[in-house]
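A student in our group prepared the protein record below, which I am reviewing. What it holds is a sequence and that sequence's fold in token form. My question to you is simply how this chain folds and whether the tokens agree. Do not assume that whoever made the record got everything right. I have pasted the whole thing underneath without changing anything:
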Amino acid sequence: MRRDIALPAPLPKERHDWQTLKTLLPYLWQWRGRILLALACLIGAKFANVAVPLIFKDIVDGFAPSSVALVAPLGLIVVYGALRFSVSLFTELRELLFSRVTQRAVRTIALQVFDHLHALSLRFHLERQTGGLTRDIERGTRAIGSLISYTIYSILPTIIEVALVLGILAARYELSFVLIAIGTLIIYVFFTIQLSNQRTHIRREVNELDSAANTRAIDSLINYETVKYFNNEVWEKQRYDQHMLKWENAQIRSQISLSWLNLGQAAIIAVGVTLMMWRAAIGVENGTMTVGDIVLVNAFLIQLYIPLNFLGVLYREIRQSLTDIERMFALLGENREVQDAPDARQLVPGPCAVRFDTVGFAYEPRRTILHVVSFEIPAGRTVAVVGHSGSGKSTLARLLFRFYDVGSGAIRINGEDVRQLTQTSLRAAIGIVPQDTVLFNDTLAYNIQYGRPTASFEEVEEAARAAHLAEFIERLPDGYETRVGERGLKLSGGEKQRVAIARALLKNPPIMIFDEATSALDSKTEKAIQAELDAAAIGRTTLVIAHRLSTVMNADEILVLDGGRIVERGTHRLLLERGGAYAQMWALQQQEAHTAMPEAV
């Protein structure tokens, strides 16, 4: 039975536009000098723009039959041209002054969101939907530039221009002109706001459906091989089309409401213009107004209603921009589950002793993963943790890295609780070869050098040789510049694992974690690399998490984890002699190894 895919969590019904603007203002305030200069240019441009119809009126009246000479109109024509040019001059100066403000604000906020996402806990990133998240950030950063542009470049100039036009109409003509203009403005603005507010929920639905469709597409493409394995291209296409159909219907509803809004605005403006021109025509007929006056009123009407018509578009765009920004700013509001303590200290460089002190942990309250786990890894020693899948082995590594904080007890390094250390210094002291290696879509050299970005190319080559990767790389046409593809899909599991080992060796930390480090390797390569891992562990505090017991035989201590509890501990020989859980696992794996060996021909 087909089930609909859950949409991203919708935003709250109650909007917080002022909170969004309040969050945005500090990014602009640091450029207040440029903003004030830009506003001065804006006001200058509007004064020049309003003066153009006044000069044009005098030019028209200057050519009337009662005019004595042509000198005055020609002089006014020069002024007219100068004013026209000054409008463009002031406008471009405003753009030049304000462009850095807009782009820097977009850059700063995007960088802050990016940094905040990296600071969020692993729990958030395990639950997030990459496609929807990236689309929210993309729309949000684009909307910031739009919002700043609309408010500073359009709303404020329109308000200034409307005020100037109404002032001139009031000073030069009958009150009826002003009353008609103000009445039209009020009705237009009220109508625009009411219908635009009704359209806001449609825009939100469109955004959510767009994010859901994008998430579905990216998730399917990332898992391209899985789709092919199960021949589910049609199924994926149908699921994607379900989202696109909902998005299409929402877009159509949005366009219908937009068309009604545009028609209503056009009708209001048409009535206002008709009434204004009717009053002007009566004035000319009565002799109280000249032909130049009717030209002036017509020019003012154009200057008044063209930006007013655009104001309706601006209001809609501002509401849409606020909707887009709101979701991106919501990411900044995501709680950092793991944070540095106010008095957090740097971990002192040097040898490290690690202690798990009665540690308890649960990813969620109803499912406890670790129960009162206690063990110690003395500086320079190796401790291995073995057990069945789901026993909590990999959770130990995540807690040591402080991707999560322990629920009870403490993890200590050199006697200091890791919660009292800065996360940066803690993670700088730990290297890991994870069970599931995911690489960047870049070159082999980049992925190895990621362990220590400041390392030289010679050090990268040395790490590759230590991981038995150099010979493979040298056989490639592009060598170290070979690109590994999305998530390293161009490499085999063993090749990716060796890249991860080289990366960890290049980091050269005092604490090393091998989380099933050789699980994806064949037996021959495993034996070769195991020797390198043993060598890399010398002098380092090492935690080995393993399923294959043959890889932990030389550990100083082996812990057997079962159901989140340590049920056995000791050396390989001691645990075999006890004949407990470890001995049973060893016997079973040895039997499987002998069974898997090909018969002699």
Notes: Confidence is low (pLDDT under 50) at residues 1-15.
